[in-house]
Amino acid sequence: PFQGYEFMVLPHGGETVETVVSTGITTNDALTILVQAGSAITHAHSKDVIHRDIKPTNIVVDKNRKSKVIDFGIGGHMEDVFLDQFRGYGTVVYISPEQENHDDPSKLSDVYSFCATAIFVLTGNQPYATKPTCIQDGMVQYITDRRFRKFVPAQIKDMYGKFGTHIINGLSEDPGERPEVNQLYT
Fold this sequence. Notes:
With 186 residues, this protein is α+β, with helices and mostly antiparallel strands. It contains seven helices and seven strands.
């Protein structure tokens, strides 16, 4: 049944960040995961590659405690993804507003998804709730409730200082107000 599918096996085993966080994680480990994943995304962006689906299940931590960003299946080179007719790709809770609106994705779309993932890694809570809005053609339509952002910033800013402020800015509805991934750590 899996003929034609590609699989990646981690040479050193591993768990998704979602699993790591759900079983308990120290602040230091959370920050290490984010720095390593952020470095991988920065490298991809330096090659004009965007991911389009950054989320806790697309970051794995191997048995040597090294983080890896996986599943670039819907990502690709910026020139190619702009030609893609399915611009809304991504996972509902982590997708950027522009992707949700089926606008062109960008590196800043990845920043949004990375910052939403960072909220989960740092707090153990999903960044936003989702709720079904209607059923159309047998598919459930979802809308993201982004109100979570209104009460989390103080907690994130207080606990993580400038890094926390950058994370919150990365969740801006306006892509122009988001920092690049490599600017999150400065």
